[in-house]
Design a protein that fits this description.
Residues 197-210 have a biased composition (Basic residues). Keywords: Bacterial microcompartment. It is found in: Bacterial microcompartment. This protein is of the alpha+beta class. It contains three helices and four strands. Strands 2-3-1-4 form a four-stranded antiparallel β-sheet, with helices on one face. The chain is rod-shaped and about 190 Å long. The chain starts with a strand and ends with a helix.
Length: 210
């Protein structure tokens, strides 16, 4: 297929947009592009078959003149292949530039997202480390408390044993004292009985003598 090139140059951005929109709606064109030349001049170009490009240029010029000023327009039919390839490459480079920009923006967003994710991961890990440290400190404190409790229990048991031993000594001493008292009572009782018997015998003897 032999391509034709349609071009419209306007003064002002609004007229250029209107021309490009009308050209695209009026006919089947490809690779529409718009370039700001400078000093308010804007160039619109597109490709297609000869008849489609002619219709597109006429409609674009008419639309642009309603809102602004048209500086010029032209249709080049059956472009030389070298010119065509050069123009296609230029349009393609513009598209690639936009694509690369979008890609760069996307990569930047992805990088920022990864950085934020890494930051969040670091915060989560730090919180986990702090929680683990607190749990460890709590376990150590509980262990110390258990050891102190066991030590106190041992001291209490030791005191109980000592008190029990002292009580047994007191009981033994009390038993010995009671035994001594009982022996003294028994001795006194026996002595009293002996004295009583002696008095009785003496009394009987005196009575017999009388």
């Amino acid at each position: 297929m032999e391509y034709a090139l349609g071009m419209i140059e306007t003064h002002g951005h609004t007229a250029a947009v209107e021309a490009l929109d009308a050209a695209s709606k009026a006919s089947n064109i490809i690779f529409p592009s718009m370039v700001h030349v400078g000093s308010g001049r804007v160039a619109v170009s597109f490709f297609g078959d000869v008849s489609a490009v002619k219709v597109a240029v006429d409609c674009g010029v008419a639309a642009a003149e309603r809102v602004g000023k048209v500086l010029g327009s032209n249709v080049i039919a059956r472009l030389d292949k070298q010119v065509l390839n050069s123009l296609f490459e230029y349009v393609s480079s513009d598209d690639n530039g936009d694509s690369n920009k979008e890609k760069s923006d996307s990569e930047k967003k992805e990088t920022d997202k990864n950085k934020q994710l890494e930051s969040n991961t670091e915060i989560i890990n730090e919180n986990a480390d702090n929680a683990e440290k607190e749990n460890k400190e709590s376990e150590e404190k509980e262990t110390d408390e258990n050891k102190q409790s066991e030590s106190n229990t041992e001291i209490i048991n030791e005191n109980i044993d000592n008190n029990s031993s002292d009580s047994n000594v007191v009981i033994n001493n009390t038993s010995l004292f009671d035994e001594d008292v009982n022996k003294k009572i028994d001795n006194e009782t026996a002595s009293n009985e002996t004295v009583s018997k002696k008095k009785t015998r003496k009394k009987k003897k005196n009575n017999n003598n009388q």
